[in-house]
Records
---
Amino acid sequence: MCGIAGFLGLSCPAQRVSVLHRMTHALMHRGPDGEGYYFDHEVGLGLGHRRLAIVDLSDCGKQPMASASKRYVVAFNGEIYNFQELRTALREKGHVFRGHSDTEVALAAFEEWGIARSIDKFVGMFAFAIWDRQERELVLVRDRIGKKPLYYGFLNGAFVFASQLRPLVCYPGWEPTIDRAALAAYMRHNYVPSPLSIYEQVKKLPPGHVLRIGAGTGVPVQVELACYWNAAEIQLQAIESPFAGSLDDAVEELEHLLENATSVRMIADVPLGAFLSGGVDSSLIVSLMQAQASSPVRTFTIGFDNSNYNEAVYAKEIAKHLGTAHTELYISPDDALSVIPELPQIYDEPFSDSSQVPTYLVSTLARQHVTVALSGDGGDEGFCGYNRYLWWRKIRHISSRVPYPLLQVMSRGLLGVPAAQLDRMARVIYRLLPRSLRFSAAGDRLHKLAGMLTIREPQNLYRHLVSHWTCPEDVVLGGKEPNSLLDIVPVPEGEDRFVDWMMLLDAITYLPDDILVKVDRATMAVGLEARSPLLDHRVLEFAWSLPLSFKLNEAGGKVVLKKILYKRVPRELLERAKTGFGVPLDSWLRGPLREWAESLLFPARLREEGYFAVEPIRSRWEEHLSGARQWQYHLWDVLMFQCWLDAQRTWRTARNEGYHINSMTIPS
């Protein structure tokens, strides 16, 4: 787990060393254990690497690294989990290894099979920058699921890339321009969707893609952008060739897959542990780890005094049952609030999933004890874990049985009752209901339901379910929302197939651009590597082949995962309503964060900056403060952009700093 940066076609030789050092230095948090550089001055190429040493801690694992023939030079971020298996196969073909890193195995694979065939063989998370000296071609590769980030752009005549945006901001002479279309998309989703970035001239390499850039005649040119793992095509193939066994057969086969996916992710030359939230996914991964470990697994969770947001009590019980070495830390509001000023520095691009706060806090806790932590990410997208899959079914059930004019009346009726009044009515009714049937913010949820009752097209209903600001063009000045994958991926016929479609969209949008960004930036900010067995592409492909009934029933999702977990953890420790990994943002904005938020939402400031329409934002802010509505997530989108806007002005001063480095050279 590291950070990479570089360029091709920087024409001024005197600038190359200092520019690459500035870019790589901006990634120090991703790789605190060392740095390395490679230059090919003939074509104006520089590759920079920051190292977080996980496997082969010796100098034999340092990067950039050259292949045995010196044809390939690589700067690599991530892990290849099946490297030992590939190493054995390559040794049989005559390859000799100096150390035992996965980077050296990857280079030998490129020599033996070429880049394209090698990538198909890799099981892992990775972002590669590969300089092919023979073809005079720079090749960028991103893993299938999008665990590892990679940004790129043509800036001032050169091709420039990096693991995060900040190194690109350090590039000399480039004045970044905010992309208002990307900002509009951010306001809908609370993240900037791929392949967009917040800057006009910079893109994200999409998951499962390879980008080739040729050196040309002094000017880099894009040769090809190609997809090597097409999630939509692979899901369709899996559905058309479904798993033929029973649910028990599926449990057995999936269990073997997960045991292997977990085992290979436990290979490390540094201390290893796991995040344990007390939910299905993290509990399953920890149980699989503990079954294969020779000593208690280190597990970590954080808790809050607010019972609506605290799952630490459940995690503690599960850790006790599994026999892990458990560490929990209860966080005060002041502890959590102290993180907020750091968020723009951590996330580097506007990002407003508020669970970023506890994710960073639990990463900080884990890093005090381990360097690698396994997580349960991926279970929701592969096995129907999100509430929206059930919501979809319930809404379709209502809309298919109630005449449309009556639905319109129901919708107008619900929207006509203030949310605060609906909350008061719900509190009276809740006295008669068990805790499992109660939920917070009833008024806002009923208003959201009312807004969906009259939506006829299934894809528009899904769009509504995953949206914050449903009309972002009304909020972002000059921001025309671009088409997204939601508009491109064909919608299938049939209710079950539509649930599959929603899971696919979540897997290629929300997963890489929200969940994995959140975890990558939070863990990398403290020098911690996160690994996710449920995101092994073989597990996801198997999940897609299963009948929907093996994943979703009337009681909820993750049917097959729960079957595996209940062999290891008593059902009663896990059967409770699904909650997010959140913080009490609603009350914070009315209390300790109010003054801070007001300064960022001040009308004169919004008008001067010129990105947002003032009225809709101020209206929601005032409604939220009064308690009439719960607009905390909409407001958090604006607040995180405003914080990021302040921070980016500071980052650009990094271009004025200079450093001395020793460059790596590869002999001819």
Note: The longest strand covers residues 72-80.
---
Amino acid sequence: MTEKKSIKSESFWSDFSRIYKNPSLIDKYLIDNSNSIEEIIIDSFKELNLDKNYSIYANGGFGKKEMFLSSDVDISIVKNNSLNDSNEDLEVFIAKLWDLGFQVGHSVRSIKDIKKITKKDLKEFTSYLTRRPLISKSDTERQITKSLNNAWSKKSFFNAKLIEQEERYSSYHSTEFNLEPDLKESPGCMRDFQTSLWILQQCFNLSNYNEIKNSIKFSSDIESAVTSYNFIKTLRFATNILSSKNRLSFESQIEISKAAKLGKYNDKDLVEKMMKDFYGHASNLSNFNRFVFDTFKEKNSFAITQKFGKFYLKGKKIGIKNYDLSKNRDLIFGIFIAIGRNKNIKAVDTSTMNMLKENIHLIDDDFKNNNSYASQFLEILKSKYNLSSILKSMKSLGIIQAYIKEFDEVVGQMQFDLFHVYTVDEHTFKVMRNMRQMQIELQEDFKLEHELLNKIPKIEILYLAGLFHDLGKGKGGDHSKIGAQTSYAFAKKIGLSLADADLISWLVLNHLQMSSISQKKDISDPKTIEVFADMVLN
């Protein structure tokens, strides 16, 4: 097996730059690996005459023919009848697979066992959703299908999967923008897409790609999501070869980015380029996953639709009526202003999300130079409610990137230092969220900050400085100076006064010094206060 893995690895690396550009090609390697394992299993099973009394199924990744070099081989052995046969030959069979180097996860069950365990164990139920018969009688397959029917209602399955996903997210920092992601389990990686497919299968009765592609709700997003999923699979296959693990470590990033042949760059630039691609695909999978979950929630909501000016409300979500956005561009920012003014409105509904994504091109140069829309953007930054979630939603829809060129340039931008564990854009959003929390919540450790923030006459100035403070990174110079220039230009473009633009620019220019003083100096020391006062006055 080691020799075969070596041959597969050599073939993969020789073809890697082509696979990187066309990720669907990764399926050949996954299917070939699956087929070679399957052939050994079937032959070994038949040699021991186990096929007379048992059926055998491939589950999980093996069931989907997505076998990575470090994947477990998940199989389910099913009794074809109720006879109490000896398990000695089964033990010989499993031992042989282990001796051949396979990491085997297996179960031996009757139909009755399957019905019982899948009804109480979500993971086991999900595993059987992805089953694929290697050797099976038609009657056995029919009985398994029957035993799974009604084991979980749509709602109970959805709620259980939601809880499962939230627990997984909490284990992986709840973001797809970690610098060393787990390509199987991190947000935005393979498990997100797989979970989406399970929800689509079990809760929407969409069992395969063609059915999803032909659906009304998901047809416009599934193709892009599949491409992103294939890209993540490509990186995982490469990472498995290098480290036998699923984590995309810094060391693996260097090797993989070199093999991708992305151009004549140094190691750091190659990694940045590759990881920017990764974060784009991870963000796409996160958005698709969120869209699937939100769609089911809306579908099962009993809330009444209410008129709300040019919008409508349904529960805690807001939507745009059937307007032509090209003639009503004010609604693009207007819907977020409405969320910021109303405590009980929490999000944009899925139909409107699709509408906004499909019309992102409307945020063109005319839009960006329009004073009315600039005033709307400032109004969003002054939101009384939900500012953090508003900005996050605007980013996921591509609105902030379209409106602020400098923000688009740092999406997925890595930070190679000891102080940041997220990409520039994700770090920026966390800074904005933290400032917002200190403003609206009185916390024991931030009483002074809370008091001062609520005395600021123009809070939008602070938020604009926070938004721009790191947007100069990745441009080959002092990011504070670059950010100071771009933030000043943006502030002037959206109609702020010279004094306000100067203040925003000054905050961005000096944010590192202020950080150093607050974190490394004794701020009760008169000398520290004097130095800081001189910096402010100058």
Note: The two ends are 70 Å apart (CA to CA).
